[in-house]
Amino acid sequence: MTTSPRVRTVTLALIAALGFVPLLAGCDAVGGAVNTAVTDATGGNVSLGGQLPAGWPSEVPVIDGTILFGAGTSTSDKQGWVVTIDATSTDPLADARTQLEGAGFVADKSASSESSGVVAMKNDTYRVVVVANSDGILYTVTPL
Q1: Are 79 and 73 in contact (CB under 8 A)?
Q2: Per-residue pLDDT averaged across 1-20, rounded?
Q3: Residues 57-91: tens digit of each pLDDT
Q4: DSSP-derived secondary structure for 50-118
Q5: Contact by Cβ (8 Å): 69, 31
Q6: Residues 6+ apart with CB under 8 A from 29
């Protein structure tokens, strides 16, 4: 699968940002202040914990757990989102896949590699890529 330089850049930026989330989680005062500043600066499109980002599509279910980070962005009149969750499930990747299938999503074989902790699903409206590791699970939702 070939990705554009813009997609790679956004992905790397999100991964770098996610590396700082655990540092903020340990300090409620700093985390709250940063969350407020980020929310003010982005118009509510970023959450550093506790809730899905503004505009998250209701047709995309997420597994149970603590939402650590969420963000939404808009380009060319299309909205996209990312969210990380500290899952309560013992097998979050399988559970995420099962939930998405239950919501009408089908496997996107071109982007899935469950053996390496990645599942890609799509419906008529969105592509959802779910990545899991021992630290949690990351959902990326993009319009088709």
Answers
A1: yes
A2: 42
A3: 999 999 999 999 999 988 777 889 999 999 999 89
A4: SSPPTT--TTS---SEEEEEEEEEEETTEEEEEEEEEE-SSSHHHHHHHHHHHTT-EE-TTT-BGGGTE
A5: no
A6: none
